[in-house]
């Protein structure tokens, strides 16, 4: 668990989130500041609960690899995700992202999560669509349950405190002030007037590649 000053955290939390890199493949960086460590401290874990809209998703296979190397800890709800689905056939995704202490600040926490933009329908005039990502909710789970009911409220989260425990524990939500209410992801999209050209080029490329494969099979293939 991470040691937090419960009384300081009662005064609220500051949250910032950034979308790093460009294009479809980004990194979501979340930072939480809870207050200075004091004498009346509980042993707690900190997490950020954020809802990703249909235009953004997390690759569960990539996440599993990161968790195996202890680079990221997160819980996806639902845990079965169609990574090939376009935006208009996808649904929202709830992510519980476990935070790690920031070595540069005794009362700060941070975590990063790779996210990916989904393909959208072609647009009429613009070459980009905007996907809005709301500020996350700050959650705390304490081993000794010493949180004040005046400052914290129970949160309905079915997930372990540490990201490794088998059974769920009681999470609590804390008031916070986001530096920015939302983040904007710009996703490139095609133009609808280019549909005919894209179809023709795709058809020609398919015919050419199929012909090359068939020629190679006939020339070098072994037929019994």
TrEMBL record:
Transmembrane region(s): 197-222
Record keyword Endoplasmic reticulum present: yes
GO biological process: GPI anchor biosynthetic process
Location within or outside the cell: Endoplasmic reticulum membrane
Membrane topology per record: Single-pass membrane protein
Keywords: Endoplasmic reticulum, Glycoprotein, GPI-anchor biosynthesis, Membrane, Transmembrane, Transmembrane helix
Keyword Zinc-finger annotated: no
Signal sequence residues: none
A GO cellular component annotation in the UniProt record: endoplasmic reticulum membrane
Pathway named in the protein's UniProt entry: Glycolipid biosynthesis; glycosylphosphatidylinositol-anchor biosynthesis
UniProt similarity note: Belongs to the PIGX family.
Stated role: Stabilizing subunit of the glycosylphosphatidylinositol-mannosyltransferase I complex which catalyzes the transfer of the first mannose, via an alpha-1,4 bond from a dolichol-phosphate-mannose (Dol-P-Man) to the glucosaminyl acyl phosphatidylinositol (GlcN-(acyl)PI) intermediate to generate alpha-D-Man-(1->4)-alpha-D-GlcN-(1->6)-(1-radyl,2-acyl-sn-glycero-3-phospho)-2-acyl-inositol and participates in the sixth step of the glycosylphosphatidylinositol-anchor biosynthesis. Probably acts by stabilizing the mannosyltransferase PIGM.
Protein name as it appears in the record: Phosphatidylinositol-glycan biosynthesis class X protein
Native species: Herpetotheres cachinnans
Lineage: Eukaryota, Metazoa, Chordata, Craniata, Vertebrata
Gene for this chain: Pigx
